[in-house]
Amino acid sequence: MASRHVPNRIILTEDQVPKQWYNLRADMKELPEPLLNPGTMQPLKEEELYPVFCKELAHQELDDQTRYVDIPEEILAYYKTYRPSPLHRAYRLEEELGTPAKIYFKFEGNNTSGSHKLNSAIAQAYYAKKQGLTGLTTETGAGQWGTALAMACAHFHLPLTVYMVKGSFNQKPYRRSIIQTFGAEIIPSPSDTTNAGRAILAQSPETAGSLGCAISEAVEKAVTTEGCRYVLGSVLNQVLLHQSVIGLEAKAALELADEYPDVVIGCAGGGSNLGGLIAPFMRDKLLNRTDPRFIAVEPASCPSLTRGKYVYDFCDTAKVTPLAKMYTLGSGFIPGANHAGGLRYHGMSPILSKLYHDGLMEAVSYEQTSVFEAAAFFSAVEGIVPAPESAHAIRAAIDEALRCKGTGEAKTILFGLTGTGYFDMAAYEQYLNGSMTDIIPTDEALANYLP
Amino acid sequence: MASRHVPNRIILTEDQVPKQWYNLRADMKELPEPLLNPGTMQPLKEEELYPVFCKELAHQELDDQTRYVDIPEEILAYYKTYRPSPLHRAYRLEEELGTPAKIYFKFEGNNTSGSHKLNSAIAQAYYAKKQGLTGLTTETGAGQWGTALAMACAHFHLPLTVYMVKGSFNQKPYRRSIIQTFGAEIIPSPSDTTNAGRAILAQSPETAGSLGCAISEAVEKAVTTEGCRYVLGSVLNQVLLHQSVIGLEAKAALELADEYPDVVIGCAGGGSNLGGLIAPFMRDKLLNRTDPRFIAVEPASCPSLTRGKYVYDFCDTAKVTPLAKMYTLGSGFIPGANHAGGLRYHGMSPILSKLYHDGLMEAVSYEQTSVFEAAAFFSAVEGIVPAPESAHAIRAAIDEALRCKGTGEAKTILFGLTGTGYFDMAAYEQYLNGSMTDIIPTDEALANYLP
Q1: How far apart are alpha carbons B344 and A442 in whole angstroms?
Q2: Residue A305 domain-assigned?
Q3: Based on the domain organization, do B211 and B339 belong to the same domain?
Q4: pTM score of the predicted model
């Protein structure tokens, strides 16, 4: 197998591209715990989600039986404008590391929103349009989700309001501009457009906001506006379903190269990329066909898997969302100013939380200076400047490859490169000029928020 | 032909990808005038270029006989990491415009340097490495060329020094960071590292610099450093040769769709993209096989074709380069602060200048507010935020499509989308908030510099 020539970029042909999403829950022996209605503490029914989510997405959220879901024609047509995404063989990286390991990465940054978020954004916008909705709301932290959803909504002529964490809104004017260029309205959160925002502003007028707070505002705005619903770019089961296209394509491309991963690595904030990437490989493991390792990589500043608790918690700060059983640092936890804005969520996808809890997946955390060291090295070697989020997976993949160098094992490593770092150059500049520091919460600090 | 289904993104398979560059000069009935040695006013010999360019590139610069040049294996291998680039059918744009025209665009922004510049950067870095050189110098204005060359030099472990126009250096810190992330040294120009720079600083200590001045510094640095040569990202014949890969791929992809362009449109600064895009179609025209129109689009603030003179002029400010016969506004001309930094060069490729002079190509200029109007519209419709340079071609393509709407003609329009605007969001912000203005030089102002 090793003698076989593998190109440095494998791209599936149109007939090799997946036409269905894969729902991992259908193969899990033990399902994740259900979402609870915080009023009744009973499992949520599909209808109870209708005021917040559009109907088809509410259905997908709770459907743990349907194994394969047909991707609607309209979404397949849109996918064709930027998918299949390439699977890269990182020959240069292997060479520079002097490792016998074979390193592959699935690159999702080559669409013009810059990240994998578009895979779910276009699906959510499609179902909303199909239901005849007249508007959507969402929140964004780093801005990748806001950008992707703004692109998707522009495609379907669907008005969008984005609540952007005020700190990011002020620090990243260009993210703001790109979202506006796609035609969305963007509001710094907390704002005076919602009760949740006004309450927080009354308490702390100078706050830079948080993702949990922006979620509260976006949900409130959706449920109080006629014809409007809320959409979310991670954590949810429906999002992992849509993102399974990443893993399905990666598996098909590896098959063309006659390869199968020994280790699958992805960064984990809410879990959208990691859950999508590992899905078909985890299926093999659940069915005892193969036994790959799975590694979730999170920032040391926001270590929900490695230092959080597996309990029911709210998904937002103002506690207006359902309760989810997940690894969480507490819905009141606000992580330090880590540059990987997409990994600064207090909780974790219930599906991934369950897999981790059951010992089917590992987790590791890294400090940001170590992550940026890997990012800068990777940029020069592979010619792709990764998003800080994605660089967490690069760091772990490099360390795994270096271990292989020690042991002489020619492992096949697959990692997810979720996006590009074009809008994160201020962070790179900090790293390059030596002014970047690490932020690791103390046990005492975490204890203040842990449920 | 119209009933045939064309996908919205055509990607060539590996065996359909060009393995040779095409040298348009080999088919021109009248050749562009030769470069002159400013000392002797005689045509430059290949050997006279060796102190500045590496040997193979000096040869390519003067070779007007070889029709097809084999692309070396190492460059083909690198091209495979990001080429073939997609040819898009802009169905959504056609629909929004309500035009019967069929609009295609060749998208060169999907490599992680963000533009077409990488096509020549990797070639120039390869030949330099092959010759055993130990360093390269260049200049960059907007930063696309500097970014691409830094990526290419990182690939070949070749040290690079980039002289970046000081105004851009200060206004675009993220461009600076990305070039540094790829491992290149970057120096704001004018600087105290060269005689040319020191002379200009002595005269005007507060100057923001210019492209012509940065070229002077980069050339001086190269010729005074052992083992070092200078490389340039546009204007030169060698660059147009490398960029012919754009046009060759576009032509092959159109053939798959059973199409041939009635009009080919590209933005023109130094001419690297336009020259590459039109090359194989211009060949057809020169051989009387077809008769497409070609349109060069330039900014109203730097109108070398539409308001310049076709004469011999220097390529830089300090007059250290050879003389080239080209459309020029004068080597001392410094355009107003147009946001399309890649189109702010006082001259134009001698090949394109000759074609324009001989009536084989048209030219048009646009004001930047009109260009950004097209860019913002295109972003929302096609989901790609174009670089300001590329948006000039979009503006012209839209206007051509609207004329078709008037006449009912179903013309096939092909334009070059050279890159993404991720590093130009400050300009988009100006456009969105209404503070962007137009800068059109008066005849009197131009007369000060015209040769």
Answers
A1: 53
A2: yes
A3: no
A4: 0.92
Q: What's residue B284's pLDDT?
A: 98
Q: CA separation (Å) from B22 to B242, B280, B295? A: 8, 7, 20
Alpha carbon separation from B319 to B39, B163, B231, B296, B446 (Å, rounded): 11, 17, 17, 27, 19
Confidence band (pLDDT; 50, 70, 90) for B141?
confident
Q: Token match 């009635």: residue?
A: B262
Residues B246 and B294 in one domain: yes
CATH code of the domain in which A103 resides:
3.40.50.1100
Backbone torsion region of residue B352, taken as left when φ is above 0, otherwise alpha when ψ lies between -120 and 50, otherwise beta: alpha
| DSSP string computed for A202-233 | HH-TT----HHHHHHHHHHHHHTSTTEEE--S
State whether A309 and A377 are in the same domain. yes
What value does the mean pLDDT take over residues B183-192?
96
Q: Do A250 and A274 contact (CB within 8 A), yes or no? A: no
B144 and B285 belong to one structural domain: no
B62 located within any domain:
yes
Nearest to B315 by CA among B230, B190, B201: B230
Give the count of domains, chain B: 2
pLDDT band at B4 (very low <50, low <70, confident <90, very high): very low
Quick: pLDDT tens for A52-85.
Answer: 999 999 999 999 999 999 999 999 989 988 899 9
Q: Could you say which residues from 134 to 153 on chain A have a Cβ atom under 8 Å away from some Cβ of chain B?
A: 151
Using CB atoms and an 8 Å cut-off, which of residues 150-189 of chain A contact chain B?
151, 154-155, 173-174, 176-178, 180-183
> Is residue B151 domain-shared with residue B257, that is, in the same domain?
no
Residue type for position B92: R
DSSP B14: G
Domain membership flag for residue A369: yes
**C-beta of residue A161 within 8 angstroms of C-beta of residue A137:** yes
Three-state secondary structure call for residue A439 = coil
A5 Cβ neighbours under 8 A, 6+ residues apart: none
Do B91 and B202 belong together in one domain?
Answer: no
Q: List the domain range (segments joined by +) for residue A105.
A: 9-18+84-114+238-447
On whether any CB of chain A is under 8 Å from the CB of B422, the answer is yes
Chain B residues with CB under 8 Å of A183 CB are 380
